[in-house]
Design brief:
This protein is α+β, with helices and mostly antiparallel strands. It has helices at residues 23-28, 34-45, 74-82, 101-111, 120-133; strands spanning 4-13, 52-60, 65-69, 97-100, 136-139. It has five helices and five strands; from the N terminus they run βααββαβααβ. Part of the ribosomal stalk of the 50S ribosomal subunit. Interacts with L10 and the large rRNA to form the base of the stalk. L10 forms an elongated spine to which L12 dimers bind in a sequential fashion forming a multimeric L10(L12)X complex.
Amino acid sequence: MKKINAIVKLQLPAGKATPAPPVGPALGQHGANIMEFVKQFNAATANMGDAIVPVEITIFSDRSFTFVTKTPPASYLIRKAAGIEKGSQKAGREKAGKITWEQCLAIAKQKMPDMNATDLEAAARMIAGSARSMGLEVTGVPHA
């Protein structure tokens, strides 16, 4: 078992990571091979389009590393589903757009591995709550 030196968490564009900040400084200070990470990350995320991908990099004492990619942030998926650039500046007072319950279910299905919900319905309610806090109107929600 190798000794873990550091765990670095970053959010990078899928397939477009470069050795420039934030990757270079984050990995360089722990002595990891920056170009090797960039090559492996870009290869692993090349088919994810233009999504922002959270990645957790574990750097070992011998300077080797492993990384795990997560699903894109809920806010990114919600904005994409609603077709908007950003949420409302005044959430609760101004609506930035609409999202349907079916879209919440689809996002929840995609995010399920990274969420702490027991079932899809609970995960979808969490996504709907995130959408509301971004100033979006959620339509078609079944009442419990």
